[in-house]
Fold these 2 entries.
Entry 1:
Amino acid sequence: MKRLSLITLVSLLLTILATASTKDTPDIRIARFLDGKSAAISYTYDDGYIEHLRCVAPEMEKNSFRGTFWVNGTTHEGNANNQKDSSRLSWAQAKELHLRGHEVSNHGWSHKNLKRISNEEIKIEIERNDSVIEANIGIRPTTYCYAYNAKDANIQAMASKGRVGTRTKQKGFGRKATREGMLDWVHEQIESGDWGVAMMHGIHYGYDAFTDVNVLWQHFTDVRYLSDLIWVGTFKDVAAYVTERDSVHLTIRQKRNKTIITPSLGLDSNLFTMPLTLEIPRSDKHSVTIKQDKKVLKPLILSNRILVNFNPFGGPVTIRY
Ligand SMILES: [Zn+2]
């Protein structure tokens, strides 16, 4: 009789605790995109034209944007005076893009259609270009862009090994692009909470060059005005964020004036290095202190929510009210 009542008491207590913790756990979640933005855009440029450095990079940088430039090793061999195609970047110029914060990544060694070659040749297209980019720029690519966007399940599996992502969807802009059309596309990303990947080639000349280059420069200004809603990030940064966001698991516990969020993420922490953003509902209490691994994290306090970036591979995040 005594034993039974003890069990009853314990189970009653557990029920109360469980109910209380469910009721009191704040609605904390991972933001859809970095810094709580509604959508993300990556501007990607194929084939390594010189004007990507001379014209595109400065216009993007004016707006604090960084782009992704996909290059083919065969067109960048030698120096600027000894190139196979003088309209292409030299390795020194490609490295300059990297040093200015842009992503320089793999578009295949010789721009071969991977659907038309053997597995051994596919491996060469991918790995030889990784190595030559690493040798000349100092960074091994962690993304891949298929020449002619040609891929199948086998090619995609081969190209995805050891990477944060490969370009599997894109919206092309060039000859037919208009300022209105480009802006409509951005609004579509905001409405659907999606990641838009723009694909461009030539700017003034070359494949699918813009009829009026001002369309692109004005577009960057249009997007800058939407910066509260849009994260413009390199392909590798957005790809990493999205994969981490969709893979992380949070355990949330409430203890009096403290919320403890324990992340667990089963990805390679050497490859996936983007912080994730926590979205915390804002309470009436005036101040919060947020810490992870003994470091104080700096939150962005908005009218209805608090945003804070944290390391998804790190220890528990503690929010003290
Ligand atoms: Zn290409």
Entry 2:
Amino acid sequence: MKYQKPTINRVDFALASKYGSPLKSQKIKSSIDGVSVNELTKEYGSPLFVFSQRAIEEKYNELHEAFSSRYPDVQFWWSYKTNYLDAICQVFHNLGSKAEVVSEFEYQKARRLGIEGKDIIFNGPYKQKEFLKQAALEGAKIHIDHLYEINDLEDVADEIGQEIKVAIRCNMDTGIYPQWSRFGFNIDNGEAYEAIKRIYEGKKLILTGLHSHIGTFMLNANAYGQETKKLIELKNRVEEEFGYNIEYIDIGGGFASKSRLKGVYQAPEVIVPSADEYAEAITNAIFEHNKGNLPKLFLETGRALIDEAGYLLSSVFASKRMPDGKKSYIIDAGVNLLYTSFWYNFDIMLDKRYEGINEPSQINGPLCMNIDIIAENIMLPPLDRESVLTIWPAGAYSVTQAMQFIRYKPSIVLIDKESKVHLIKDADDLEYIVEKEHMPEVLK
Ligand SMILES: Cc1ncc(COP(=O)(O)O)c(C=O)c1O
């Protein structure tokens, strides 16, 4: 038997419950879609982001089915900012998703993947005129965020000598606070109606859609019922008053994933509404309030479709005991890769069963920064150097928000439906990082 250094642990009886002792239970994940996590880190290095195509497709099909079984004309638009790796976007496009982008960079990325302008929704508060012009010429669906953008688009319409089809983004009270009121025009105080009137009177833009995105990680499906009702009532009004034909309403994204939000004590399995609950609230509100033609229904769901399909594998580099007696591990992934760890308590799973009893432990990242903590208080058995931890769910916003800070960004792989592993992004290296730097001659 392998020698294990003895430790004396205080047994805290407050930790015991009728479900058993937390001193022995271990969450284990030794493989992803049949591929061993140890093999993955051996082959592609550690840390390593891993995406499961199977999990993406299952989630997409579940959500799409929930909507398309209730409503005749549903279109999903993949929210690029949630995860804009080429291969991930391609999985969504192959499933039938079009692209939703919020910057010229994301727009260019979608175009580079072969997505036509007409299949791109261009959202966001910062769209420079030159990119509005490109989007208008390519027939993209431009969602106006503020009055300056109306003026800019009218200038573009003059420049290109044609009317431009547009939508406006709206915000409103849906019973969820704080409200996301900084984007678009407010429906409740009449601002959205006034903006539409302004568009109508300008005679250079044609309103064809209404959009809103009420927030992210929305745990209350009824908020979407409220949102949809208000968008449809606005649609009815402007169709009647201005003779518009509103082709679509876009209810945005925001459906919750199975992450554990810090400060929320119930399990995600209990509090996250199902795909059917979201779909029911939205489609019921359309059927109940719509007058005239049924609009197309657009969704820009991001996190709910990708979060659980993404994992971050990380290895134990060292351990120490802190002055207060608490065990602390240093692993090779930190807040540089999991910016989202400020909001989420991730599931942290072990590659195998470890001998010994659990003790309260802290998991620190590799950065020489005091804030680099992945888990402050987690019950873990004694782990070896190089034990592989699977951090989950890590598919939404982690790759796009990962920082090149102190360390290189790691490789990323996709496991396809036949359990074949594909490298979809190389780890950064020094050459790549300094490529755009310049040394002034006088300093040499
Ligand atoms: C306009 C818009 N659409 C869609 C999304 C995707 O949201 P989520 O990932 O919460 O589904 C966002 C994210 O903030 C957004 O701003």
